[in-house]
Amino acid sequence: MTQILIVEDNADLAFGLSTSLEVEGYEVAVANDGPTGLTAARDRNPDVIILDLMLPGLDGYRVLRTLREEGREMPVLILTARGEEADKVLGFRLGADDYVTKPVGVLELLARVNALLRRARAPEKKETANEKFGSVEIIPSSRTVLRNGSQVALTPKEFDLLLALVRRRGAVASRFELLKEVWGHRTAVMTRTVDIHIRELRRKLEDNPAEPRHILTVWKAGYRLEA
Amino acid sequence: MTQILIVEDNADLAFGLSTSLEVEGYEVAVANDGPTGLTAARDRNPDVIILDLMLPGLDGYRVLRTLREEGREMPVLILTARGEEADKVLGFRLGADDYVTKPVGVLELLARVNALLRRARAPEKKETANEKFGSVEIIPSSRTVLRNGSQVALTPKEFDLLLALVRRRGAVASRFELLKEVWGHRTAVMTRTVDIHIRELRRKLEDNPAEPRHILTVWKAGYRLEA
DNA sequence: TTCCCCTGTACGAATTCCGTAAGCCCTATT
DNA sequence: AATAGGGCTTACGGAATTCGTACAGGGGAA
Is A153 in the same domain as A220? Predict the structure, then answer.
């Protein structure tokens, strides 16, 4: 979940902003003064900070400078009423990533936050990490699967299905969900397609396919992957 | 040397900007219309683009969109007289990193460009070092490939394709990604172009092209280079 | 010329379908 | 309450079809 921290002493503005951001699917925290904002930034390590400059206790410049001196590199968007060029230049020099002057439309602000997130997250590349269950290891980036260290040849559909199961871990995945996720939104034709591919996965990955210990059937519900 | 491309039809403004940027130690190129700007962006691969929206030939939105569709991810700062929120939102949605409304102070613009550069360069441009797999050695700086120590003649496209594969190492590269990275745009067209060039690479680099050991096919997914 | 990219064809892997067997759940009957 | 049977769900093995990739040759452009 992407976390955004708003450091802003105007409660109304902070509330409006946080609501808009939450609607967009972000998790938002609000701090009303400088010291609280600094602590929150340290504790929560948010993905973006929206920072007011005029704050009680500790002004925004100081908050920003302190964070950067501590080596925290999350994007910071300064949102303030001070529109002098000198202020902006100072803000950027202290390590801000964007500087917006009030008043500003919510849509523009959202767009700017998204732009910062896109840029900051690009290198990270939230690739699905390698997963393991039992003696099986899954490496999504190369689409390979190892069992007891040696490679197992899975067909594309088999691999995608396995991935879909793994992503759910212990939870039940219905045939319909799996169909939708692996085969794409095709009509709800009753087919045994999922079953068949499950069988193949068991055959290739289970020690005893007749008594699966990882890829389990949940009667009337679907399948479940158990570590 | 950090390269900045200015795409701006107002010659005076472009000149003033480029002078200021050069004083700051940047290498600046200027394009006066859309098509020229697009070509320059492709050829020079600048570190930042300052893009006007109202341009002769091809407007800034289109230039930006085309670049992003081609997979070019350099930061783009839109500099324009159009200050409507809808314009800004559109700009960001097309992949802009900043949006500045004329008139703007040179200092602010410099600060914003610097902020973009700082963020974009953080992951440190990994200059593709010499790479090896099997008995093949790749020297990107001279666009040369050696096999068992002797030079192999690759065509430009073949070399670019090989480079794209090498950059991913063990990970799967889809045909679409490769098309985007090596050929640029040309999306949506179902073609065997990638396949054909892969075949050439195998023919020239694999010991037994019929059973490739390095340039592997991943069914339904793409290709993968295995050391 | 060399290089690039398209079209057409063939091969083979992968997916899906079918019929049948086995398993589970519910319920009615003793 | 225990149990046996019916109905529905899932598993299996093989066969047919679909679909993706490899290969060959040729036209077009730089």
Answer: yes
Smallest CA–C1' separation from B212, nucleotide: D22
Q: What CATH number corresponds to the domain at position A14? A: 3.40.50.2300
The token pair that represents A121 in the structure block: 């997250």
B94 and B169 assigned to the same domain? no
Domain boundary, last residue among B94, B121, B148: B121
For the segment B132-152, the average pLDDT, to the nearest whole number, is 88
Map tokens 């200027």 to a residue: B30
Nearest CA in chain B to A93: B111
Domain boundary pick from A82, A103, A121: A121
Assess whether A57 and A85 both reside in one domain.
yes
Round and report the angstrom distance from CA (B218) to C1' (D16). Answer: 25
Q: How far is the CA of B219 from the C1' of C12 (A)?
A: 12
Residue A227: Cβ within 10 Å count? 11
Q: What is the CATH number of the domain that holds A175?
A: 1.10.10.10
User: Residue A168: which domain range?
Assistant: 131-225
A222: CB within 7 A of chain D nucleic strand: yes
Domain count of chain A?
2
Interchain proximity A115–B96, CB inside 8 Å? yes
Residue A126: inside a domain, yes or no?
no
Strand ranges of the sheet holding B172-173, from the earlier edge strand across to the other edge: B172-173, B222-225, B215-218
Instruction: Give me B123's structure tokens.
Output: 């992951």
Q: What is the pLDDT of residues A137-154, one digit of tens each?
A: 999 888 999 999 888 989
In this structure, chain B runs to a length of: 227
Interface mutation vs chain A, best among B78, B104, B119, most A CBs within 10 Å: B119
Nearest-angstrom CA–CA distance, B151 and B145: 6
Residue A163 within any structural domain of the chain: yes
Q: What are the two backbone dihedrals, phi and then psi, of residue B133, each rounded to the nearest 5 degrees? A: -150, 135
Least confident range of A117-121, A189-193, B11-15, B197-201: A189-193
The kind and range of the H/E element at A48 are strand A48-51
Indicate the pTM of the whole model.
0.74
Q: Which of B179, B171, B223 is nearest to B201 (CA)?
A: B223
